């Protein structure tokens, strides 16, 4: 037991091995018009783009969650699974692609393995062609595994969640501007098409306008705080896609084509990526979020966070490949058990674990299955 605990106490935070395909993209036919071409899986580090998941020429199976059956859609309508204008994409906690066509409230879930598509009918939104602010062109998956979609003007934030394989959509309301934003208002700079957003490990979101304004959105108060303007982007570069890659870097792409860029969020400086990715991008999505220690978090993996604890709790995320109950055990630096709590029905779950009044110091949080096997373990520092 002591040997096992000693091993746990030597744990350190490290990046998981890089997946070859770490970013997904909605790509276009050309840079002049918004015309959907295909869904692609990209290797942002090496610039590999050959993996086309689904093309606009395909005829996928579409299943209606409302009607509980397969349906046929009008391919000439803007409200169909392969509409010619799609600009919002994310990868959910189950590894599926979630997206929304423009001018439509419909939400679609694409299984990249089977190519099947599920239609989630959404009666909470009403985007109209005469109101660009009502369109959804920015989407990201939060650290909780839920997908969040924000309208161009911030007038509506949707949460798309899944439980036991069934999807649901919730209207979280309006994202309002912080009082200190001055002339840099989310509601004004976001009314045009374009832009995207990413999430961090505290479930905050960073929203990018097409022309480089950055806002930090907190779900706690539903406010957007202006962060600043991105520097060093080419003059004709409009931000249409943003995602976190497996290296923890923010990747930016444009519907006008051109090379991809990375962004340093602290300095707001963009740099060209050293790869051959150069194509019209309407949106980017990935299974990663920004982590406070600069490494990437894979939302499809088991995790414990934050590792620097100042508010008396940690979150335990269990991926959907686990079943049953789990015990969350906390050990102090001497290897003594100081807390033992149970999580029920752990499949694809996110749980807040209260730590009580632990004194400042180093601890190890060990999550064990019912048979005593370790699911995930992390060293934490209680301040």
TrEMBL record:
- Keywords from the named record: Signal
Q: Please report the stretch or stretches of sequence annotated as the Secretion system C-terminal sorting domain.
A: 304-381
Give the matching SUPFAM superfamilies.
NHL repeat
Q: Which residues form the signal peptide?
A: 1-19
What Pfam families is this protein classified in? Por_Secre_tail
The record, for NCBIfam families, names:
Por_Secre_tail
Name of the protein: Putative secreted protein (Por secretion system target)
């Amino acid at each position: 037991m002591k040997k096992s605990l000693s091993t746990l106490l030597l744990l350190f935070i490290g990046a998981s091995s890089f997946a070859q395909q770490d970013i997904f993209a909605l790509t276009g036919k050309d840079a002049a018009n918004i015309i959907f071409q295909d869904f692609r899986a990209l290797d942002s580090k090496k610039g590999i783009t050959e993996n086309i998941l689904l093309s606009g020429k395909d005829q996928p199976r579409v299943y209606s969650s409302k009607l509980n059956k397969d349906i046929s859609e009008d391919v000439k309508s803007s409200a169909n699974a392969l509409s010619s204008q799609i600009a919002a994409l994310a990868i959910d906690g189950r590894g599926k692609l979630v997206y929304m066509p423009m001018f439509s409230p419909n939400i679609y879930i694409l299984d990249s393995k089977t190519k099947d598509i599920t239609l989630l009918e959404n009666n909470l939104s009403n985007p109209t062609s005469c109101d660009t602010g009502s369109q959804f062109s920015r989407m990201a998956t939060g650290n909780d595994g839920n997908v969040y979609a924000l309208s161009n003007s911030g007038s509506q934030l949707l949460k798309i969640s899944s439980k036991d394989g069934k999807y649901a959509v919730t209207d979280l309301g309006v994202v309002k501007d912080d009082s200190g934003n001055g002339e840099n208002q989310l509601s004004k700079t976001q009314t045009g098409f374009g832009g995207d957003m990413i999430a961090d490990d505290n479930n905050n979101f960073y929203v990018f306008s097409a022309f480089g304004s950055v806002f930090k959105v907190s779900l706690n108060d539903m406010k957007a705080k202006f962060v600043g303007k991105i520097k060093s982007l080419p003059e004709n570069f409009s931000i249409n896609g943003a995602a976190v890659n497996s290296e923890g870097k923010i990747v930016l792409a444009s519907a006008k084509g051109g090379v991809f860029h990375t962004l340093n969020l602290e300095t707001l400086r963009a740099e060209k990526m050293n790869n051959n990715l150069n194509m019209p991008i309407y949106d980017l999505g990935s299974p990663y979020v920004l982590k406070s220690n600069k490494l990437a978090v894979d939302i499809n993996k088991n995790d414990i966070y934050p590792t620097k604890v100042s508010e008396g709790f940690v979150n335990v995320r269990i991926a959907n490949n686990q079943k049953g109950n789990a015990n969350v055990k906390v050990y102090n630096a001497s290897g003594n058990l100081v807390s033992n709590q149970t999580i029920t029905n752990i499949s694809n779950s996110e749980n807040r674990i209260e730590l009580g009044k632990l004194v400042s110091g180093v601890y190890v949080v060990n999550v064990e299955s019912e048979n005593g096997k370790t699911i995930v373990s992390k060293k934490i520092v209680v301040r």
